[in-house]
Design a protein that fits this description.
The complex is a heterodimer of chains A (about 120) and B (about 110). Chain A has about 120 residues and is mainly beta. Chain A has no helices and eleven strands. Chain A has strands at about 5, 10, 20-25, 35-40, 45-50, 60, 70-75, 80-85, 90-100, 110-115, 115-120. The relative contact order of chain A is 0.31. The radius of gyration of chain B is 13 Å and the shape is globular. In chain B, about 40% of the residues are buried. The mean pLDDT of chain B is about 95. Classes of the chains: A mainly beta (about 120), B mainly beta (about 110).
Chain lengths: ~120, ~110
């Protein structure tokens, strides 16, 4: 069964850091680009970051650039998001999503999604 | 940055046809993907590359894209189709994936 399972969310104070993880199974992880997409409570979907199959191509939304770092470990079939200098507006459910292709840029869709991990930034 | 505009809500009676639009500047030149999100659940891809359906998605779901508007069409709407629907494209100028604001489909 193709599956993505996120973890690492929680309550964190503004300015602090958090690291999210996504464990992949049921497909050849290192063939595909992977992404983080977030959804603030009651709001729509927002693409956060994407990484190519070999980590050679990485992209970030303007809202997180310079604060968040995406990475992957193909040997562990895992995707990560290091989030620093967190702000209240980063409060959201963070989804891990698989790209149809190997490049995070380009016209491909997200064909598999995890159930998400909630990040709450509050003092 | 590239903006995708969706109507906040669409209502349709069971058995009828629902059309959800996604507007963007020359969106017909881009590949559009559509996701369905039911309450408390993760999004599910229902249409990709404008009009392709992933395996397991009913034929009642179809898509089109031309000019400045892409459209998701759901035929013979069922109560189980009630959900939020999001369109998504890739913006080549910013190298970002972009989502529309979402449309809540209500089945009357």
């Amino acid at each position: 069964e193709v599956q993505l399972v996120e973890s690492g969310g929680g309550l964190v104070q503004p300015g602090r850091s958090l690291r999210l993880s996504c464990a992949a199974s049921g497909f050849t992880f290192d063939d595909y680009a992977m992404h983080w997409v977030r959804q603030a409570p009651g709001k729509g979907l927002e693409w956060v970051s994407g990484i190519s199959w070999n980590s050679g191509s990485i992209g970030y939304a303007d809202s997180v650039k310079g604060r968040f770092t995406i990475s992957r470990d193909n040997a562990k079939n895992s995707l990560y998001l290091q989030m620093n200098s967190l702000r209240a507006e980063d409060t959201a459910l963070y989804y891990c999503a698989k790209d149809i292709g190997g490049d995070p840029t380009g016209s491909d869709a997200f064909d598999i999604w995890g159930q998400g991990t909630m990040v709450t930034v509050s003092s | 940055s590239y903006v995708l505009t969706q109507p906040p809500s669409v209502s349709v009676a069971p058995g009828k046809t629902a059309r959800i639009t996604c507007g963007g500047n020359n969106i017909g030149s881009k590949s559009v993907h559509w996701y369905q999100q039911k309450p408390g659940q993760a999004p599910v891809l229902v249409i990709y590359y404008d009009s392709d359906r992933p395996s397991g998605i009913p034929e009642r779901f179809s898509g089109s894209n031309s000019g400045n508007t892409a459209t998701l069409t759901i035929s013979r709407v069922e109560a189980g189709d009630e959900a939020d629907y999001y369109c998504q494209v890739w913006d080549s100028s910013s190298d970002h994936k972009v989502f529309g604001g979402g449309t809540k489909l209500t089945v009357l």
